[in-house]
Amino acid sequence: MSHVFHRHLKQRYPTAVSGEGPYLIDADGRRYLDACGGAAVSCLGHSDAEVVEAIREQVGRLAYAHSSFFTTEPMEALADFLVERAPEGLSSVYFVSGGSEAVEAALKLARQYFVERGETERRHLIARRQSYHGNTLGALATGGNAWRRRQFEPLLVEVTHVSPCYAYRGQAPGETPEAYGERLAQELEAEIQRLGPQTVMAFVAEPVVGATLGAVPAVPGYFKRVREICDRHGILLILDEVMCGMGRTGSLFAAEQEGVSPDLVTIAKGLGAGYQPIGATLVSERIRAAIAEGSGFFQHGHTYIGHATACAAALAVQRTIESRDLLSRVRTLGEGLQGRLEDRFGEHPHVGDIRGRGLFRGLELVADRDGKTPFAPERKLHAAIKRTAMDHGLMCYPMGGTIDGQRGDHILLAPPFILEESHLDEIVDKLDATLKSVLGH
Ligand code: PMP
Q1: How many whole angstroms separate alpha carbon 20 and alpha carbon 183?
Q2: pLDDT tens per residue across span 293-319
Q3: Nearest residue by C-alpha to atom 13 in ligand 1
Q4: CB atoms within 10 A of CB 238
Q5: Whether residue 198 is found in the same domain as residue 341
Q6: How far is the CA of 121 from the centre of ligand 1 (A)?
Q7: Could you tell me which Pfam families the record lists for this protein (predicted)?
Q8: How far from chain centre, in Å, is Cα 321?
Q9: Does 263 lie in the same domain as 132?
Q10: Pocket of ligand 1 (CB under 6 A)
């Protein structure tokens, strides 16, 4: 019996023993094409020599120094790298070990910012339904995913939720994307008025929704309107780019494609590409300055803040992506993947929508296309697809429909940026074989 407390205690997992570019290899020698980067993590594949060497070099010199005693060269260099390329106004980086921690730090930074300014009544957070921002309690409270929250309620942080920007299901027949975006902006405005604008601290959203909806970008103009509304009421805009950031959608930050400058941005997954656990919160100058000129101390911290080896790994990952011009590859391969998915599944009776940006693509599965009826959650389609895809040597990231029945199952694809065109064919072929086995089509 395994002594590891696995998440699925009734499931047996193959043992991953090595990696080779976009493939993972198990103890029986089976190869799996990693079409989801785990959970949109492994953007450089699994054995990048430059990154491995950078880690070796750093760990041999200095693996770790506690951030309350020292700063380190890799931490400073990584912060410089990110700020130089970040949306306007973001001027510093708070390093943590993963996505949930980055979200927690963003929430506490937002709160402390208002406390430093004497606006202590600003405590409400607004996020969106069917969203995921992490599993620690603050991040879980922020997320609007009923299935993940249900058994832990009541949650510690009070958050209210507005509708996500989810055109496939939310946009009314005959409604233009612009009108749909405006309707959602009005919903946010109404929620702010209901709570009292002077009591609202921040609005939190993913620019392209990953785990809960499956690579769903907002309609054009939505985030611009959100930014305007936040500005009008002095509310901070927190963009969660844990999954969609670090080049996944074809630009280093997904917010660039929305033309907005957020106050706080969370990143993780693709930052270290799985070579080391690392996340970060990018902080705008006005928040940094309010805290620096006020108490001068962010009342928060973890043992592994700015871990030297993790920062060295992330810096090597990001420099490699830049020096090999992999973001333009993400854009080209992304179009190639979308085209192939549409060719193969565009008429599929159970594929309702194919969407996404860059190498971040989602297929929504429905029982019938015309009614967009989701499959019954009890069918646990996502589990069958994941298992069957693995049998076909493919890793993809399917998620189940919610208990509130407001969306269908989806399959998320987030492959490494280093793919060859032939891997796109392999992904689509293996996905096709998987759907045929599970759905009969
Ligand atoms: N935010 C988003 C948007 C995510 O997708 C995730 C992870 N799926 C998290 C936060 C939490 O990140 P982690 O699992 O690294 O704690």
Answers
A1: 47
A2: 999 999 999 999 999 999 999 999 999
A3: 99
A4: 26
A5: no
A6: 28
A7: Aminotran_3
A8: 18
A9: yes
A10: 39, 98-100, 103, 132-134, 206, 210-211, 240, 242-243, 268
Which contiguous run of DSSP H or E holds residue 104? helix 99-116
Task: Indicate the residue type of 409.
Answer: D
- Measured distance CA(305)–CA(67) in Å, rounded: 6
Domain range for 245: 52-323
pLDDT, tens only, 113-154: 999 999 999 999 999 999 999 999 999 999 998 888 888 888
Q: How much distance in Å is there from the Cα of 269 to the middle of ligand 1?
A: 8
Q: List the structure tokens of 221.
A: 């103009």
Q: Which of 133, 266, 360 to mutate to test the pocket of ligand 1 (most atoms within 8 A of CB)?
A: 133
In a domain, 5, yes or no: no
**Total domain count, the chain:** 2
Amino acid at position 265, single letter: V
Contact partners, residue 428, CB within 8 Å, separation at least 6 = 337, 340, 341, 344
Examine residue 177 and say whether the peptide bond preceding it is cis (omega within 30 degrees of 0). no
- The structure tokens listed for 186 are 């009005």
